[in-house]
Amino acid sequence: QFAEKNAIVVIGACGIAVRMIAPFVSDKLSDSPVVVADEAGTFVIPLLSGHMGGANELAEQIAGQIGGIPVITTATDVNHTFSVDLFAKKCGLSIYNREGIAKVSAKILDGKTPDIVISSEKTDLEQGVLGLQPREYILGIGCRRGKSFEELDAFIQKWLDHAGIEKRLVRAAASIDLKKEEEGLLRWCMANRIPFFTYSAEELKQVKGDFQESSFVKEKTGVDNVCERAAMKAANEEGTFVLRKQAENGI
After folding, report:
1. Quick one: angle between helices 183-191 and 149-163, nearest 10?
2. Do 171 and 135 meet the contact criterion of CB atoms below 8 Å apart?
3. Does the model's pTM come out above 0.90?
């Protein structure tokens, strides 16, 4: 569950939760959100990944439903100041020098103006400056039913590498609504914290553009192309193809 970025809610002592997750904790930008609630339901504590993983929001939601008290301990929240990692998450930005988060947050908490650079390319930064990149790529995908997480992951990574795109810069994945409960795709998107959008065949048919047509795909789904049309639909029909349709082993 931790590896796939699923939220973990522990009912019990914080110490138990800490010992349980300790071997798996690796990076604040990718760790699974972990929330702890005591057995009486009095306190609900986001223990890990409060901002990027959404543990703070989850704790507040659970506390509201059970009449408990959310115990928020992240410094920027406690001091009601700007949270740069939450800002990046909400604005679809990727942080590429994670060490800058603490330094920028320290400046904010000290009442100083932080230094943040937002650019489509990585740039060399001075110490204490945080670098953000727009997550500007959308992955359109279709597959045969039952394709595994491992098969999908290998295929997607192969073609992202081919196109020179870092996975962290993928803003969303898109497909036809026939795939809205496709386990492998859902697991892949969850594990990579990538939103997954699906559209009906009729919606995809309405997307304007030049797409690689397939009579087989049309027979199975009702539309001549899923991956390219879905990607362009998710881009509000304003995108540019970086990589066209690639087909291999039913994906």
Report:
1. 60
2. yes
3. no
Cα 86 from chain centroid?
Answer: 13
- Tell me the pLDDT tens digit for each residue of 178-237: 999 999 999 999 989 899 999 999 999 999 999 999 998 999 999 999 999 999 999 999
Q: To 10 degrees, the CA torsion angle through 75, 80, 82, 84?
A: 30
Q: CB–CB of 8/2 below 8 Å?
A: yes
* The residue type at 189: C
Position 64, amino acid = G
Strands 115-118, 170-176: pairing kind: unpaired
Greatest CA separation found in the chain?
62
What does each C-alpha distance from 176 to 6, 42, 184, 206 come to in angstroms? Answer: 24, 43, 15, 13
| 7 touches 53 (CB < 8 A) | yes
H/E element, 170: strand 170-176
Report the C-alpha gap between 84 and 251 in whole angstroms: 37
